[in-house]
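Chain A, query sequence.
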Amino acid sequence: MVLLAAACGGGGGGGGDEGAVLSSSWGDPQNPLEPANTNEVQGGKVLDMIFRNLKKYDPKTGAAQDMLAEKIETSDSQNFRITVKDGWKFSNGEPVTARSFVDAWNYGASLKNNQKNAYFFQYIDGYDKTHPESGSQSADTLSGLKTVDDRTFTVKLSQKFSTFPDTLGYNAYAPLPRAFFDDHDAWIAKPVGNGPYQVDSYAKGSQMSLRAWDGYNGPDKAQNGGVDLKVYTDNATAYNDLMSGNLDLVDDIPASQLKNAPNDLGDRYINTPAGILQTLAFPFYDKAWNRPGMEKVRKGLSMAIDRKQITETIFQKTRTPATDWTSPVLGEDGGFREGLCGEGCEYKPQDAKQLIEEGGGLPGGQVKITFNADTGSHRDWVEAVCNSINRALGQGKACVPNPIGTFADYRNQIGDEKMPGPFRAGWQMDYPLIQNFLQPLYYTNASSNDGKWSNQQFDDLVDEANAESDTTKAVDTFVKAEEVVRDEMAAIPLWYQNGSAGYSERLSDVTLNPFSVPVYDRIKVG
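Chain A, predicted structure.
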C-alpha cells in the first residue's frame, strides 16, 4: 500500500486528478457519528473515511493488518499489551496516544452513554460494572484497561480470546481526541478523526462533504480530493442520476435494475461477494419448534428451498446459494468451508417431505415465515421460499408469509419472543473472523441469538477455539462448532449476499471491500 501511494503521488503517472472530488449515493446515519454508537452501514462508511484504528482490514482480502498498532503482545490470549505507533495525529493536531484508545473504549462501554456498540467491550474485565444488565453502573471505567505510558496500554479480558487483536479494526474501537470529551456538542457537529478524510460540512437530508486531509501521513492517503456523499431515500433515483451523469457512484444497485446494470454500465458494474449471510432463524423458546425430532423438520424445510432458482430469478445472481454458515470472503484459512452444510442445503424436495414427516410434521400443520414488509425485496423472496416449500410438500398453504409492517415493529416482536415460526435473519460481519459468524448468533444468550438456541457442545467448542493461541487450530475448532449448528440446523442458511455498485466514466480504480463498502481512498477521478 505504501508503494501504491507513492506511485500515485505527485502530478505524474498515477492517473487521475488528486484534487478532484467525486459524488456518491448515501443515506443519513441513524445516529451521530460516535464510533461506539454507529452500527449501520451509512454511518460506518463515514467512520471508515475519517478514522484509522489499531488494525485495518485489507480492502481486498479482509485480513486484519496493523495500522496504528506497532505491536500487540500476549502470552495467554487473555492479557494483552498494546503499543501504539508514534507520529499519528488527529486532524485537529492532537497526537494519538494510548489514552486516546483507553478513554474512547471506556466511553463506549459506559451504560450512561447509551452507545449501541457497547457490547463490543463485553470481553474486557469490568464490563459487568460499567454496563450491567440491570440497574445502575457501579464503575465509570473498565478495570481491564490500564494506560502504561503515552504509547502503551494493557487490556485484560474476562475470558481467553486469541483472535481479539483481529477485532480491533472495527470502528467501535476507534481512538478519540480530547476534543470529543472537552466539547462534545462541537465534535458531534463536526467530527474530528485521524483518517485520510475530514468532514467539511454536513446538511442532514442533503449531503455530507468530506475532503482529503493534507496532514494525513498514513500509508493509504486519499487518491482524490474528497467525496460528496449525497443523500437518497430511493436507490432507483440514485441509479437514474448515475445514468444521466449527475452522480459518480452508486453502491447499492436497485433490485429493479439488476438485470439492466450489466448492459447499462459494462465493466463499470461491480457485483462482488460481501461478508453478508441471509438465514432463516427459529424460535427455540417455542417448544413446538424445539421438541425432539424437530432437527429433521428444520433440515427438511431447508432442503425444500430451491436456492439456485430464487437467487437467479429474484436476485439476478447478486446472491449465491449458501453452503455453510459463514461467508466466502473469509477464505478457507479464515474458516469458510464450501459445502459444509451438505445435503441440508441442497434442493431435494422428495427427501425434504420425508424428513419433515419423520420429524413429526410442521407444528400446527403450517409454517409461517415472518419478515419486515417495509422493503419490497423481502416479500418477494419470502413468497418464493414458501412457494418452493409448498411445491415440495404438495400443499398450497404449508408455508405462508407473515409480514410485519415496519423493521422497528419486527425487531420489537423478535425481542419480545413472539415469532410463530421461522423468521428472516441477516448478518453482516463486524470483522472478518469465523468467530463473528458463530458466537454472537448461536452461543447461549449471546447478543444476537434472537432465536435463543442453546447447545452446550457448541458453547464448549467456541470457548475452546477462543482460548486456542494457534490461529489455524482455533479456526478448525470453530469449524467443529459450526458442524454442531449444521447437525441441529440451528438456522437455515439461504444465500451469501454480494455487493453491487456502478460508477461513471470519470472514475477508475473503484472497488468494494469485503463489507460491500466502496474503498473511497483508492478511487481516482478524471
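Confidence is low (pLDDT under 50) at residues 1-14. Residues 388 and 403 are 18 Å apart (CA to CA).
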